[in-house]
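Appendix B. Chain record.
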Amino acid sequence: MVERTPFMDFVAYAVLIVGVITMLAPLYLIFTTATVTSEHIYTEGLALVPGTHFLENINEVFERTELARQMFNSFIVAVIVVIGKMFLASITAFAIVFFNSPYKGAIFWFVLITLMLPLEVRIVPTYEIAANALLPFQQILEWTGMAHIVNSLFGIEINLDWNLLDTYTGLTLPLIATATGTFLFRQFYQTVPPELVEAARMDGAGPIRFFFDILLPLSKTNFAALGTLVFIGAWNSYLWPLLITTDEKMRTAVVGVASLNATAFDQLPEWNISMAAALIVLLPPVLVIALMQRWFIKGLMGH
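Structure tokens predicted for this chain:
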């Protein structure tokens, strides 16, 4: 136990204050930049004091972009990814922990190995699959000669095609798999007392009932903590939505904000408009953190 002294208290508070200033300073500069004009930025530099053009800049954002629609897209994508990741991680960890199999250890380590292959690494083949989700089946039919046989016998040319570009399915499906979530749920499930499992078995509860009626209620804090992180990650996802969407109305909010600075080579970026859009896009993650803070901390602490 560390002994509390006035000097150590002063050092601790000083470190905390420096940390808070370091984190809040960029947000403050974003806000002040969003309240001035472009001319002010290019003539006087960063605004250290808020200006009077905040509402004008906000209005300009909605006039120039489909930000309202893009924020709706981001919300739908984030919610689908959260639900998908939570269910997949919990059910996978449940199978690994509570089902006896000589291969479950190897399966778990295989799942963890996928952490070394994030979406950015496999983005080219993932995009190829998203352009035609049935392409692997088409290739299997061609490699086995089934496509040629069907064409010869029935005169039917098999051409499987399912385009996921500019769809919610394409935006969310590659983001749902989660090795981290599986690991966290596995660690929690291993703390479940064996007596509870045995009592549920004696009560006649099958695996599905045990999972939904006992494990899931016990995992509320895990869902809250991981769900908060997943929501923020999905909301802030940039590279995959940028690659898979070409329609302005299917783009997500982060991509929409980035596109505000895609000006012609002879034009200067309007940082005040971009920062105003960034403030709007920041609101949902901040609101989620504020609402889930208590449960989030409990989930991280394992309570």
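Further analysis of this model is presented in Appendix C.
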